[in-house]
Design brief:
This is NHL repeat-containing protein 2-like isoform X1. This protein is mainly β. It folds into two domains: about 100 residues, Thrombin, subunit H (Beta Barrel), CATH 2.40.10.500; about 90 residues, Thrombin, subunit H (Beta Barrel). It contains two helices and 17 strands. Strands 1-5-4-3-2 form a five-stranded antiparallel sheet, with no helix packed on it. It has a five-stranded antiparallel sheet with strand order 6-10-9-8-7, with no helix packed on it. A four-stranded antiparallel sheet has the order 11-12-13-14, with no helix packed on it. Strand 13 and strand 14 form a beta hairpin.
């Protein structure tokens, strides 16, 4: 920042200043080996133990990145640093633009990466076998709506995602609705686990700090959720400065 200020103060040529900012932007999504690659506020990680790969939600680059520990390289699977508002997807590689991915989880049977796309209130899926990335659940409206299918489900800034032990569901920290949701990986539909307003889907102001069952629970902007190998669920209740567990 000192360098930029001195350029402005000394009235450097505008084209040179513009070039500096362009370099600064593109360097944040630079690919290459571990020494050269750069990120921009990465938020979420998921590991593929079979292939020794790490998937990264590179949030402010609006990209899904891949860290390969075998050849010590970093490359981009989807997104190119440009924020977009495509609610369908289906593109391949970096031609498919993303919008603020906050977290990821890896499903090993079909080798899919599920993405909590906070920027447009959806859950997306990246197929690691064919390289395509598309919307999986959520109609893009910011609300707390559980439905039987992906088209009848809405999220509100989903920020955390984790898989159930049987790989049939993903658990979602839906931050703006202050709720934890369960997403069916076969149907794309969702159900309530804890928090939120189960009656008025547009009400994103049902929050607080109270333990209980289902919608009795009051949370405030949970940003992360984790499921252990025997089904225990832990959540980061961020604005209440607490960690909770959910028991079935």
């Amino acid at each position: 920042m000192t360098f930029v200020y001195s350029l402005i103060k000394n009235q450097a040529h505008p084209s040179y200043l513009c070039f500096f900012f362009l370099q600064l932007f593109f360097f944040t999504i630079l690919l290459g080996n571990f020494d050269d690659a750069m990120f921009n506020r990465p938020q979420g990680l998921a590991y593929n133990p079979k292939k020794n790969l790490l998937y990264v939600a590179d949030t402010e680059n609006h990209a899904l990145r891949l860290v390969d520990f075998v050849d010590e390289s970093v490359r981009t699977l989807a997104g190119n640093g440009t924020k977009d508002s495509d609610y369908q997807g289906g593109g391949s590689g970096t031609t498919q633009l993303l919008n603020s991915p906050w977290d990821v989880c890896f499903e090993p049977v079909n080798e899919n990466v599920y993405i909590a796309m906070a920027g447009q209130h959806q859950i997306w899926k990246h197929n690691t076998l064919d390289g395509t990335t598309r919307a999986f659940s959520g109609d893009g409206y910011e609300r707390n709506l559980n439905g039987a299918s992906s088209a009848s489900t809405s999220f509100a800034q989903p920020s955390g995602i984790t898989l159930s032990p049987d790989l049939k569901e993903a658990y979602i920290a839906d931050s703006e609705s202050s709720s934890i949701r369960a997403l069916g990986l076969r149907t794309g539909g969702s159900r309530l686990l804890a928090g939120g307003d189960p009656i008025f889907s547009d009400n994103l102001f049902k929050f607080g700090d109270c333990d209980g069952v289902g919608s009795e629970v009051l949370l405030q902007h949970p940003l992360e959720v984790f499921c252990g190998n025997v089904g225990q669920i832990y959540l980061a209740d961020s604005y209440n400065h607490k960690v909770h567990d959910i028991k079935f």
